[in-house]
Amino acid sequence: xxxxxxxxxxxxxxxxxxxxxxxxxxxxxxxxxxxxxxxxxxxxxxxxxxxxxxxxxxxxxxxxxxxxxxxxxxxxxxxxxxxxxxxxxxxxxxxxxxxxxxxxxxxxxxxxxxxxxxxxxxxxxxxxxxxxxxxxxxxxxxxxxxxxxxxxxxxxxxxxxxxxxxxxxxxxxxxxxxxxxxxxxxxxxxxxxxxxxxxxxxxxxxxxxxxxxxxxxxxxxxxxxxxxxxxxxxxxxxxxxxxxxxxxxxxxxxxxxxxxxxxxxxxxxxxxxxxxxxxxxxxxxxxxxxxxxxxxxxxxxxxxxxxxxxxxxxxxxxxxxxxxxxxxxxxxxxxxxxxxx
Amino acid sequence: xxxxxxxxxxxxxxxxxxxxxxxxxxxxxxxxxxxxxxxxxxxxxxxxxxxxxxxxxxxxxxxxxxxxxxxxxxxxxxxxxxxxxxxxxxxxxxxxxxxxxxxxxxxxxxxxxxxxxxxxxxxxxxxxxxxxxxxxxxxxxxxxxxxxxxxxxxxxxxxxxxxxxxxxxxxxxxxxxxxxxxxxxxxxxxxxxxxxxxxxx
Lengths: 341, 201
Prior knowledge:
The complex is a heterodimer.
Chain A: H1 15-39, H2 41-66, H3 76-101, H4 107-134, H5 144-157, H6 159-185, H7 187-197, H8 199-211, H9 222-230, H10 241-266, H11 281-284, H12 290-313, H13 315-325, H14 327-340
Chain B: H1 2-20, H2 28-32, E1 40-49, H3 64-74, H4 82-86, H5 91-114, H6 118-143, H7 151-154, H8 157-163, E2 167-175
Antiparallel strand pairs in B: 1-2
Helix pairs in contact in B: 1-6
């Protein structure tokens, strides 16, 4: 199991200079992301999703494989619960549009269905936290029970708002991954990174303040309508859809940036050779699964190509399918983040 | 990291509620029940009165979002705030939410009472209270009548019109029956108090 985690303290030559350069680059990227997201939210959203949605999922898959132990050992229950929950929740989520199209329930009953799925998600997360806490006897994670119950309560008050909150909070989780990774691999960078993070609420406040009075985006075609709906224009009709799409796009850009650029860059030199399967611990280990890992990564590359092809043929439908299936990667982040805490 | 995450979530949460909440609690009754003889208040929004020397005719510009709100209000949707509307008052869901919140508060209370490290518990309670106060303050500012009365923003309208400057203030949209409009289609009522000339009592 220890082989799954190959973390080294970075040799500190020119650390201070590198940190300053990196902070400056991150600042530039954030400013550029804010500018593009605020200026042309719909157009940039289309391009960003086309270019980075598939690749970022590939990078996430590879990252998760890097952190998967060869043998589960003491974590057997944790991983079984994680994978079982991941499968069940993804399948039920994917089936929701079909159930909705069948029009089996009224609007009120439908909100109960959404609230029930969200409750199952929260229960699964709380269970994972509890299982993880059993492996960390020194830490006290019992607070998860009241927090989970309170979140469930809020979810039942407004299931649509809760689902929308997941859409907005999910991109931020990538920043948490980066934080944990930096703390383990490059502690010298951690403080600078956390200081940079405090800019995020400031940037978000500025964006919201600046864009809140802008006129709504023209959602007169199917694709633009989908983008505004995904950002919550229907749930929050009095909020400018321009602001919603811009803020969501900005967060998505950060999310893609972390998975595609930041995390691979701060990995070890060996881990940066993305094409080499042997850099993945469960493929390198004598009792590992190199063929399975290779097959998974090749299939994932094929899925990315298929996604690009789909976007080229019918962007709107592919977008819908992608965001439905992509719930799997949203869910998969939870157990792997918990393993890093 | 957790603090930053919480801060970002709070910004989004407060901004979301502040953007959408109705900013005058005292006016709520007239939104909830229509007074037939006086019309029905459907929306509280902002209005700018501006002059344009090049314009051929007076123009009334309405934002798309406000138009959607009119339509929603006329259909009789709950309240006029989408967040409040989103938190629908379905009886079964409210009961489940209430039970869960009761359990959350109860379990949290038991955990705090049993906590051996009371200093840490105090910090937790402090953090929870801080968040509650923050949300409460946001609610008072946005839902309560925290600012000056609406007429205050209109007080300089005559002077601004004379100087060709725009004036921005709050406005209630009221749907009035045709027979009470005396042949008029639209009317704008500005809350201006008569100002006495210097030396006049």
